[in-house]
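Give me the fold.
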Amino acid sequence: MIAIIDYDAGNLKSVEKALNSLGHETVVSRDSSVILEADKVLLPGVGSFGDAMNNLDHFGLIDTIKKVAASKTPFLGICLGLQLLFERSDETPGAEGLSILPGQILRIPPSNDLKIPHMGWNSLNIKKGAKLFNGVPDNSYVYFVHSYYLKASDENIVAASTEYSTHIHASVEKDNVFACQFHPEKSSDVGLRILKNFADL
């Protein structure tokens, strides 16, 4: 069973639908006991960093997520779910993230010929041996929608990166914790392969 954490953030249904299409049983829940008993856990989401942290606190999910991360249960953050795993974000100064991984979320710097938010397909530079990208060719394209990007403190956890106005850490993995800034559920066959790799861990 794969638990998808419900904290009133958008995009839960498309993630659920993608996993179901791969034949996996899912449950969308904010019940800590359900989440902690799941075989795998996902934290998707679109929205603002500060509001999301407030919602996680309101639903009593901060400790739950930290317990999952500290266990051996595979955990995947998607888009905002990646950003929340880190310490802070330019989007909401003063708001603390989950601090499960070291790093910060910065605003994508303005560029004359690039639109922000970054919406569209970008190719990935994939680190050799990254578990989430098993069988995914280097320079594969995935779909992004974001105005803020990850700068991880530890380059060793970066599983894939991309370029859009700046160097973006697009995916990370450390032990049982995985995350993608892009949307695998909207990234066609490549994205489904990434979700399958996670579900098969």
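The chain has six helices and 13 strands.
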